[in-house]
Write a structure and sequence with these properties.
Structural class: mainly alpha
Helix content: 55-70%
Strand content: under 5%
Length: 162
């Protein structure tokens, strides 16, 4: 019983713990402010191998190289924007997890709101159109169909023969 409780406590601790980062101890800079800047930049940059992770979270060798490159540029005295500009010039906009709002990325930024607005307008138009019709309109029965319906209803009202 005690062993089970210990296992459950360990499992809860692991589930509740923050995400482990892939930064190795040998990559950490001695200057804490530069290290914080490097970590913030690493969270903004995409791992070119994983493509859905930041280089801060990725264990890929290329991500490690990019983390070291970021720290190298910061140690050389580059600003955050200079580091990002250097990496974008080298790898393209794809290296940024959140691409910049530029002419090349205009479609990427504007398409989702335009589609959402278009869907909302289409929904509004459909509801408005349905309201103008007065709900569902049932087609009129022909004279033959009305006679058949009357005969069926009359047959149902008669008591069954015993």
């Amino acid at each position: 019983m005690r062993r089970t409780l210990s296992f459950l406590a360990l499992a809860l601790l692991l589930i509740g713990s923050p995400v482990a980062h892939a930064v190795q101890p040998d990559e950490v800079m001695s200057d804490t402010t530069k290290e914080q800047r490097a970590r913030a930049l690493s969270r903004e940059l995409r791992c070119m191998v994983c493509q859905n992770q930041s280089i801060d979270d990725s264990d890929a060798p290329l991500a490690r190289d990019l983390r070291l490159l970021v720290r190298e540029r910061l140690a050389a005295g580059d600003s955050d924007n200079q580091v990002l500009d250097f990496l974008v010039a080298r790898y393209g906009q794809f290296v940024l997890l959140k691409p910049r709002f530029e002419r090349q990325t205009l479609l990427l930024w504007l398409l989702p709101p335009v589609l959402l607005l278009g869907g909302g307008l289409a929904l509004w138009w459909q509801v408005r159109r349905r309201g103008q019709r007065g709900g569902e309109v049932t087609p009129k029965l022909t004279a033959e169909e009305e006679a058949r319906l009357a005969a069926l209803m009359a047959a149902e009202k008669q008591p069954p023969a015993t």
